[in-house]
C-alpha cells in the first residue's frame, strides 16, 4: 500500500512577495517563519551567505499552526504566464451552501479578493442538475482559480 504523502503546490510568478501575501489572504495562511534559530529571514539568509540579488526569488506560505493544508511555494521565473493553467486551485468559500445563499457568499468573497488585486473572470450560476455554481477568478498575475 502506498503511504500518504504531503503535497506542496509550487507557483511560478514574477513577484514572489506579492503573490505569497495575496495567497495568504485568500486562504488564511501565513508566511512561513524562518528556521527556529533565526529571528528573521534576513538573519537566516545572511548566515547562509545568500546574496541580496537572490533574496526575493522564493517565498512560502503555510497553514496556521496545527491546521491541515499543503505548503505553497512561490518561485520567481523570468517568463510571463502565456496560456491557461492546466491545474488550478478551487478555493472552497461556500461549502455546503446552495442556491442564492451560496452565490451571494461566493460573490462577497470575490469582491474581497478583487480589492486585493484579483480579477473576476466569470460567474457560473447553479442549474438544476450538476452545477452548484462557482466564480472563475485570476490572481494578480493571471493564474486561474475558482471560488467554489
Q: Could you give a quick summary of the protein structure above?
A:
By secondary structure, the protein is of the alpha/beta class. The protein has helices at residues 16-27, 41-47, 99-115, and strands at 8-13, 30-31, 58-62, 71-76, 89-91, 119-124, 134-138, 144-147. The strands form 2 sheets. Strands 1-4-3-2 form a 4-stranded mixed β-sheet, covered by helices on one side.
What do you see in this structure?
With 148 residues, the chain is of the alpha/beta class. It has three helices and eight strands. The protein has helices spanning 16-27, 41-47, 99-115, and strands at residues 8-13, 30-31, 58-62, 71-76, 89-91, 119-124, 134-138, 144-147. The protein has a four-stranded mixed beta sheet, covered by helices on one side. Strands 5-8-7-6 form a four-stranded mixed beta sheet, with helices on one face. The two termini are 32 Å apart. The model has no long low-confidence stretch (mean pLDDT 92).
Order of strands, main sheet, comes to 1-4-3-2
Shape: globular
Mean pLDDT across every amino acid position = 92
Instruction: Please write the string of helix (H) and strand (E) elements.
Output: EHEHEEEHEEE
What's the alpha carbon Rg, rounded to whole Å? 18 Å
Measured between the Cα atoms of the first and last residue, the distance is 32 Å
- The helicity comes to 10-25%
* Strand segment count: 8
Question: Which spans of ≥5 residues are poorly predicted at pLDDT below 50?
Answer: none
Continuous helix count? 3
**Percent in strands:** 25-35%
Structural class: alpha/beta
Largest sheet: 4 strands, mixed
Amino acid at each position: 500500500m502506498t503511504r500518504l504523502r504531503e503535497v506542496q503546490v509550487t507557483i511560478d510568478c514574477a513577484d514572489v512577495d506579492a503573490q505569497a501575501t495575496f495567497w495568504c489572504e485568500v486562504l488564511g495562511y501565513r508566511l512561513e517563519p524562518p528556521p527556529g534559530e533565526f529571528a528573521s529571514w534576513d538573519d537566516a539568509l545572511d548566515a547562509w551567505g545568500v546574496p541580496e540579488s537572490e533574496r526575493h526569488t522564493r517565498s512560502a506560505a503555510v497553514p496556521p499552526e496545527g491546521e491541515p493544508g499543503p505548503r505553497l511555494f512561490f518561485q520567481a521565473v523570468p517568463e510571463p504566464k502565456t496560456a491557461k493553467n492546466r491545474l488550478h486551485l478551487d478555493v472552497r468559500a461556500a461549502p455546503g451552501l446552495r442556491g442564492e445563499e451560496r452565490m451571494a457568499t461566493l460573490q462577497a468573497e470575490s469582491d474581497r479578493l478583487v480589492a486585493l488585486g484579483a480579477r473576476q473572470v466569470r460567474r457560473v450560476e447553479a442549474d438544476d442538475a450538476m452545477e452548484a455554481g462557482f466564480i472563475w477568478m485570476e490572481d494578480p498575475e493571471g493564474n486561474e482559480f475558482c471560488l467554489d
